[in-house]
Specification:
By secondary structure, this protein is mainly α. It has 9 helices and no strands.
């Protein structure tokens, strides 16, 4: 029997690019469905069957993309962290320049603006205690180097409490992101972004 996914609506075989696009679309559908259910019901109360039903796919098809619910939540958490830190220290030399600092602030804001639905769900998922336990090792792995590089940056700028400044910046960015997600039409995120750059640089 021919797999319908390899045939397009004109009964022509799909190209490898089309198949890859279809696979990515299905994967994102599964991820979005899982995030909505994790945010609403919690990780433990959400089953693989519930996710498959929400995504309107078979349970077997879901397992073609993720071997388990644990693998799925790990993918969601890790992809969010990777996106958030992607624009930090672009040349990966462990030394932040003013240009890289400005780029990071701009990039952080643009990431949230581009996919606000994802970030709303993401933050709803990660604030749940059971999810935080899963995320904690990954956060430590990413956040500690991030804070150390930021602290070094502020130290070189002459601040007497560089780590406090690094923590403050992180808290400010978290607050800006959350406020924008609550009221994206009225929250002046671009103006606030410019203020952050001027105050912290």
């Amino acid at each position: 029997m021919t797999d319908r996914s390899v045939i397009n609506k004109n009964n022509m075989p799909r190209t490898s690019e089309q198949l890859e696009q279809l696979r990515e679309e299905r994967k994102m559908l599964i991820v979005e469905s899982a995030m909505e259910l994790f945010a609403e019901k919690g990780f433990s109360a959400t089953s693989v069957s519930m996710i498959a039903k929400h995504a309107e796919i078979s349970k077997g098809l879901l397992y073609n993309y993720f071997n388990s619910k644990d693998e799925l939540i790990s993918y969601i958490l890790n992809s969010g962290i990777e996106k958030l830190f992607e624009g930090f220290d672009k040349n990966r030399d462990g030394l932040l320049s003013k240009e890289e600092f400005i780029y990071f602030i701009n990039d952080s804001v643009e990431i949230i603006k581009k996919d606000i639905k994802f970030w709303r769900l993401y933050f709803m998922v990660i604030i749940k205690p059971e999810t935080q336990k899963l995320l904690e090792p990954r956060i430590i792995e990413k956040v500690v180097p991030f804070l150390n590089i930021l602290s070094d940056y502020f130290k070189r700028q002459g601040h007497k409490q560089p780590m406090a400044m690094a923590r403050l910046l992180g808290a400010v960015l978290d607050g800006v992101g959350l406020n924008y997600m609550v009221d994206p039409d009225n929250f002046p995120i671009d103006e606030i972004k410019d203020i952050i750059i001027s105050k912290f640089i």
